[in-house]
Each structure stands twice: as structure tokens, then as C-alpha cells.
Design goal:
Blueprint (H helix, E strand, L loop, with lengths): L7 E8 L3 E9 L5 E10 L2 H8 L4 H21 L6 E5 L1 H5 L3 H12 L3 E3 L2 H15 L4 H4 L3 E7 L4 E7 L2 E8 L3 H8 L12 H17 L8 E7 L1 H10 L1 E2 L4 E5 H11 L4 H8 L3 H19 L5 E5 L3 H11 L4 H20 L4 H17 L1 H4 L3 H13 L11 H10 L8 H12 L11 H4 L3 H19 L8 E9 L3 E8 L4 H10 L1 H7 L2 E4 L4
Parallel strand pairs: 1-4, 4-5, 6-9, 9-12, 14-15
Antiparallel strand pairs: 1-2, 2-3, 6-7, 7-8, 10-11, 11-12, 13-14
Helix pairs in contact: 2-4, 5-13, 7-12, 9-12, 10-12, 11-12, 14-17, 15-17, 15-21, 17-19, 17-21, 18-19, 19-21, 21-22, 21-23
């Protein structure tokens, strides 16, 4: 076997709220992988940050010792530093001294820590879960499902309907926060004494109602429970269905939770064969899972044998052009479509302008020089550019910006939502100007991106000025170095579109240097 044919080893370190975890994976050429080593060390990041807002000096020094120990393990496996990925989640993300922490870790260990925001966590969890439940993919595509992961500092939630993402949320509630608010977990009926979680459920119901007035949790068929606490529960009250996931029957789960609620932490350690820090998080995590699960009609819990670490390796192994990544981009669009419907937008117009914008983006790629992420932002902005009409027609571009920037969209970070909002803000006639505070706050690269994508959106929006979808398709050709000929395939009267193209192409001409010449055919 040649070196090119040998499986590749890679490692991931996950710096969480209550532990630093490491996994070594053997990655095959087809992207499949198997775990060959793993380790976990407890740490008090969550208790530091969620109470004091900063990472304590002792915790930083402890983390450095743990990471250096993991570094020796990777070296023993012969894993190059470039093949080790280090991510940190909510505790480090929220720490006021996180930059200092990252700098000290790099200097003392050589590891470059990447902080995953809530969107990135959703992305990685989504990839890992899809890989684990491959055998259920067909039935998932025909039903309504929830994917939920409870961590030390936050709870991630994704809602899918018939394979399409309805919404994604990140709640600032995890096992450590819950334990702090409760003042500790001991024996007792956990499900009936959690006012803070009950309050969360009310917020959750309101969120669902806002996403889709007809949607209700009773429609949920599959409830996917992700995380180490979920895997512990599956080990004791579930059944292994494949190499990658287990199933827990509804009544078995609640019977187990009731039994667990009578245990002390010491009982959990002794009877369940888990570490002390795992025992501390088990009841809080399963309580949160149980409260969500109670609101659904799902008869089974699906527990994948994966975590965010597998998501990191999947993205690394499969690359940005993988089937899974393309599906992820499709879910971003599905989430955006759900948001548009929430605000009763002109769906046919939004979809058509979005389609036209993708044609323009692809056909003009040699000239705009933008990448795949910019394409996704344009697609979402084009779909949602008119949602501000929900507030008022006058100034709808500004209302649209506000709605987008204050919404949650699966797969888009706060910074990316800001960019989409600004593209929508400028899709009419006002130009992005340096004295506009939000625009000026962007980096130079971001300002250029907003200008280019706004120019493209204005042209594509003009091609459906009548909102009748009369221009079905078009092609582009550069003529005489400074003329872009747009040949459109249309049906019916497109006089409004012709006039709008003349009025809205000025920014395009300034940004790209081409005058658009319309050459329609019907």
C-alpha cells in the first residue's frame, strides 16, 4: 500500500465548559472514519465564566497542562500539528479574557484555538448527526424532527420539517447554568421543580409559533438527542440499532429519568460507572432533554454516537464541496424561506429574484471574483429583500434590514446576518456610503462584498419589477470591453423590467465598469 492509499490520522480537541476532550480518528479516502483513541479531562471553565465572567488563572494553567498532555498523545500517534483541530465553545466564547486565554495557549502549547460561535456549533453538529443516522435519512425526509444538544453553557436546537430546516436556536441554558440556578442537583423529582427550564419552554413555544403559525411540537416524529449525557442514557435504557446510533423508547426514557432523579451524584458515579464530573451533568442534561421531549408526540429518542468533534473531522475529511456541505447550504436557504413566510413576503417574487441572482452570480464569476460564502449571502438577501413590507411599504428596505439582523437563520452567524441586512438595506436606490455607521464599521473586504452583491441584487430585482416572473432566464456576454449584453428569455410585456433595469444599473456600472445593454428575446 502506497502512502497515498494509507488512511490518514487526525485529531480534534474540544474545549468545553466542564471538560477538555480529545479524539483521534482514522480517516479513509472515502471520508469514512473510525475512532482509534479518545481522552477526557474535567475542568472548571463553566463555573468560572458563568459566575465570574472570566477564566480563572488556575483553570488556564490546568488547561495548558491538559493540552500539553494531549499534544504528547498526538505525537505518539504520529499526527502532524496541522492535522490537529482545536475548538472552544460557549464557556470560552463568553469569557471576557478569552483573547488572553487563546494567546497563552498558543504560546505555551502551540495549539491555535478556534472559537466556534453558535452557528458553527449548529453546522458541525448537523454534519455529525447526518453522518450517524444515514440509515434513517429517507424517513427523516418525510417527517418533522428535532435535533437538540445540551452542553454545559448552552442548548442547541434545530427543527426540521420534511428534511428542510425550519429554524435553529441557541439558548443560553446548559447543565452548569441550570445547576447554578438550582444551587445543585440532589435527589428529588427534577422534572417538576425547574421553573427556569419551564420558562425556557414557554420561550421555545413562542419561538416556534413565530416561525410557523401552523407548526406544533405534536408533529415531531423523531427526537434526536446529542451529547455525552444522551449517550450515557442510551447505554442504560436504550437499544443499539447500528454502529452509529441507538434508540430509546419514550416510556423507557422517562422511567430512567425518574429513577435517576432519586440518585445523588455519588450514586450515579457508583451505579452508572461514570466519572464525578459526568455524573454532575447527567441529571441536568436529561432534565432539559425530557422537558423538550414531553412537548412532542415522538415515541422514540434517536441518540447518535457523535459530537461536535466528529463534525469537525467530517468537514475536514469531506471538504467544502462535499454532498453534506451542499446540503448544509440548502438548509440555510430553507431556513431563510421559513423566515420570509413568517413575515408573509411575496414568495414567488423572492424565489424568482433569488434564482436570477444565482444565474447572474455564476455567469459573472470571472468579473466579481467572489467565493461560495458570498454566493450564499446573495441568495438569502435576494430571497428576503422585500420582507420589510411586513412592517410598512415606506422604507421597507430599512425595515427588512432590521428584521433580518434581529432574526435567527440556521447557518448564518451574527456578522453574516449583518451583511445580508446591509445588502437588503441598499437594494433600492440609496448607495452604501462611508458616513453610514454600520457600513463604515465593516472591514474593507466586507464593504467591497456588500457593494458587489448589492449591485447584482439591484439588477436581478429589476428583472422582476412587475412581480410577474416574465423574464424566465438570461445569458450574459461582454461586448466592446465596457458593455455587458444581457439577453433575456421572456414572455409578455416587460416594459416595467426594461425601465427598472435602466434606473437600477447605475451602481453596477460604477462597481464593475460595465454598462448593461438589454437584448431580450421572446
Amino acid at each position: 500500500m502506497t502512502n497515498e492509499q494509507k488512511p490518514r490520522l487526525a485529531g480534534v480537541i474540544d474545549i468545553g465548559s466542564s471538560a477538555i476532550r480529545m479524539v483521534v480518528m482514522q480517516i479513509e479516502k472515502n471520508g469514512e472514519f473510525r475512532k482509534v483513541d479518545r481522552a477526557s479531562k474535567p475542568i472548571q471553565f463553566g463555573r468560572d465564566v458563568f459566575i465570574k465572567k472570566v477564566i480563572g488563572r488556575e483553570s488556564i494553567n490546568q488547561a495548558i497542562r491538559i493540552l500539553n498532555g494531549f499534544s504528547e498523545l498526538f505525537a505518539a500517534w504520529g499526527i502532524a500539528r496541522d492535522d490537529v483541530f482545536v475548538i472552544a465553545t460557549s464557556a470560552i466564547r463568553e469569557a471576557r479574557n478569552r483573547d488572553t486565554f487563546i494567546d497563552r495557549v498558543f504560546i505555551r502549547t502551540g495549539f491555535n484555538v478556534k472559537i466556534a460561535d453558535g452557528v458553527e456549533e449548529n453546522h458541525l453538529t448537523y454534519l455529525a448527526v447526518l453522518h450517524a443516522i444515514e440509515g434513517l435519512r429517507a424517513t427523516f425526509a418525510r417527517s418533522s424532527n428535532i435535533i437538540i444538544e445540551v452542553g454545559g453553557g448552552s442548548t442547541e436546537l434545530m427543527i426540521m420539517d420534511k428534511g428542510k430546516m425550519v429554524s435553529a436556536h441557541l439558548f443560553r441554558l446548559g447543565t452548569l447554568r441550570l445547576e447554578h440556578n438550582w444551587g445543585g442537583f440532589e435527589a428529588g423529582d427534577a422534572l417538576n421543580k425547574v421553573p427556569i427550564v419551564q420558562s425556557l419552554m414557554e420561550q421555545f413555544r413562542g419561538t416556534i409559533a413565530g416561525v410557523n403559525a401552523e407548526y406544533n411540537l405534536a408533529k415531531i416524529k423523531y427526537f434526536v438527542m446529542v451529547g455525552g449525557d444522551a449517550r450515557t442514557a442510551a447505554l442504560h435504557c436504550g437499544q443499539k440499532k447500528s454502529e452509529h446510533y441507538s434508540i430509546i423508547k419514550r416510556q423507557d426514557f422517562f422511567d430512567y429519568l425518574e429513577k435517576l432523579a432519586s440518585f445523588t451524584v455519588e450514586d450515579c458515579v457508583r451505579l452508572l460507572n461514570v466519572s464525578y464530573y459526568e455524573a454532575e451533568s447527567l441529571l441536568p442534561a436529561l432534565t432539559i432533554f425530557g422537558l423538550f421531549f414531553r412537548e412532542t408526540a415522538a415515541e422514540e429518542l434517536v441518540v447518535p454516537d457523535v459530537s461536535i468533534r466528529e463534525g469537525v473531522l467530517l468537514r475536514f475529511a469531506l471538504g467544502s464541496d462535499s454532498k453534506q456541505e451542499r446540503q448544509f447550504h440548502g438548509q440555510i436557504f430553507a431556513s431563510a424561506l421559513s423566515l420570509g413566510r413568517k413575515y408573509h413576503f411575496d414568495e414567488a417574487h423572492g424565489l424568482h429574484v433569488s434564482t436570477l441572482s444565482m444565474v447572474f452570480f455564476d455567469s459573472f464569476s470571472d468579473q466579481h471574483g467572489l467565493g461560495e460564502k458570498a454566493q450564499v449571502l446573495l441568495q438569502v438577501a435576494a430571497l428576503l429583500h422585500d420582507i420589510g413590507y411586513f412592517v410598512r411599504a415606506t422604507g421597507h428596505h430599512k425595515h427588512g434590514q432590521y428584521l433580518i439582523q434581529n432574526s435567527e437563520l440556521f447557518g448564518l452567524s451574527i456578522d453574516e446576518l449583518n451583511l445580508v441586512g446591509q445588502i437588503v438595506r441598499y437594494h433600492r436606490s440609496t448607495r452604501p456610503l462611508r458616513d453610514h455607521a454600520e457600513f463604515n464599521a465593516l472591514t474593507q473586504e466586507q464593504r467591497v462584498m456588500v457593494l458587489k452583491l448589492t449591485a447584482l441584487l439591484r439588477v436581478c430585482d429589476s428583472l422582476d419589477r412587475s412581480h410577474c416572473q416574465r423574464i424566465k432566464d438570461f445569458s450574459l456576454a461582454i461586448k466592446d470591453d465596457d458593455i455587458l449584453e444581457l439577453t433575456a428569455d421572456f414572455q409578455g410585456d416587460i416594459s416595467l423590467e426594461r425601465q427598472a433595469l435602466v434606473a437600477k444599473s447605475e451602481l453596477f456600472e460604477d462597481v464593475f465598469g460595465y454598462r448593461i445593454a438589454f437584448a431580450g428575446k421572446n
